[in-house]
Design a protein that fits this description.
The chain is an alpha/beta fold. It has a single domain, classed as Transcription Regulator spoIIAA (2-Layer Sandwich). Helix content is about 40%, strand content about 20%. The protein has a 6-stranded mixed β-sheet with strand order 1-2-3-4-5-6, with helices on both faces. A hairpin with a 2-residue loop joins strand 2 and strand 3. Helix 1 runs parallel beside helix 2 and helix 4 packs antiparallel against helix 5.
């Protein structure tokens, strides 16, 4: 199993001043993990700049190329914090470039994180792929991926969605 993350510091340490949202997420903007079939596990915490998006995209491409077929992405964005318009534009552009390389992508959002959810829903909409959807309920995300997953991949999704795992990943 490989696991990659980008350690860049907290939002405040990375250039945001007082008064900006500072997440309680780990001091890294994201993690990408592979190792179970074609499943790519993505956790996004705090993408502050376009360099974070470029790094995330490069990591996804590198990990996807190592898989036996088009990746199935399970994204956990429940701990993510709001982002700038420049980040939104870059994220949407990079997602569009990745559209044809992904079999399916389920992106799990925190129902209480409405500002981020509205921003991210727009990013996903602008990226324009029917194979990518946002969910506020873990069970719905699982069901949407289910038809694309091998048994071992489905078991991994179930493991990721266990309450103890959900808490630990945040």
């Amino acid at each position: 199993m490989s696991g990659l993350d980008a350690s860049q510091g907290t939002a405040y340490a990375r250039g945001r001043g007082p008064g900006h949202f500072v997440s309680s997420a780990p001091a890294r903007p994201f993690t990408v993990t592979s190792g179970t079939g074609r499943l790519l596990e993505v956790c996004v915490f705090d993408v502050c700049g376009t360099d974070d998006i470029a790094s995330l995209t490069a990591t996804l491409i590198r990990e996807a190329q190592a898989l036996a077929g088009p990746p199935i992405i399970f994204g956990d964005l429940r701990a993510a914090s709001p982002f700038s318009q420049a980040v939104a534009d870059e994220w949407s552009r990079d997602m569009r470039g990745f559209n044809g390389k992904v079999a399916r992508s389920a992106l799990l959002l925190c129902p209480e994180n409405e500002t981020f959810n509205l921003q991210f829903a727009r990013v996903v909409r602008c990226a324009g792929s029917a194979s990518r959807r946002c969910f506020r309920e873990a069970g719905e995300a699982r069901e949407w991926l289910r038809a694309f997953l091998a048994d071992v991949e489905l078991a991994r999704i179930d493991e990721l969605l266990r309450p103890a795992t959900l808490t630990r990943n945040l």
